[in-house]
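re: ur question from yesterday

yeah so i grabbed the chain u mentioned. its 78 aa long if i counted rite. heres the sequnce exactly as i have it in my notes:
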Amino acid sequence: MVLVWSHLPDLAAGLDHIPGRGQQVSDVQRGYLVLGIDELVLGNAYVLRPGAGTVNHRLTIDDREVSLSAAAARERVP
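ran it thru and got these structure tokens back, copy pasting raw so excuse formatting
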């Protein structure tokens, strides 16, 4: 698994861009995109808690997209 880009709705709680890790740009809706991260995910897995349906956290695999929010909103997903 490779983290290609990330979206940050704001820079609260220390969740800001890490210099040298991609390029931070405005998303034109008061948030930020970090593009060009291209970082291998250790162990090929994340433990996360997808947001509500309106957030629509998702994985893209080749040409297929899977909505984690639709499958497990606000639940721990290993």
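noticed a couple things. The helical segments are 68-72. also Residues 68-72 form the longest helix (5 residues).
anyway ttyl
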